Amino acid sequence: MPVNTRDPYDPTNIFARILRGEIPCREIYQDAHALAFHDINPQAPVHALVIPRGAYVSLADFTVHASDAEIAGLWRAVGITADLLALTDPGYRILSNIGGHGHQEVPHLHVHLFGGRQLGAMLPRT
Ligand code: 5GP
């Protein structure tokens, strides 16, 4: 099992505050395991975020420390959110930034959903 996967979780991060209801969000979906909402600074016509309710820094942390039910719950919520946003049929992209090279800004695991137009190449060629 990987060991170096858990930076300390910062409970003041913006998504923890959204989960606690301290900051509003444009909610799309929620259940026992996850919350989905629109990104405040959309990078595509549709840009949503799906986050687990548990305190996990990133996917690296989540896949080691979360329960099977939490892991299943997050991915099911991603699929449900895509359906609710009518992204499934035209197609969409999911992405999760992890750590420094991933350019992760908010240290609470989140899955981005992008859609609403042709998304082009997977990564910029820089
Ligand atoms: P990261 O770079 O960590 O993968 O992405 C963080 C995302 O969170 C960014 O797309 C950013 O626009 C979004 N974001 C940051 N603060 C807020 C906020 O207060 N509300 C919402 N809805 N999104 C936020």
From TrEMBL:
InterPro entries: Histidine_triad_CS, Histidine_triad_HIT, HIT-like, HIT-like_sf. A motif (Histidine triad motif) lies at residues 108-112. It comes from the Bacteria. One of its GO terms (molecular function) is catalytic activity. Transmembrane segments: none annotated. The active site is at H110. Pfam families: HIT. Residues 14-124 form the HIT domain. Gene3D superfamilies: HIT-like. This is HIT domain-containing protein. It comes from Sandaracinobacteroides saxicola.
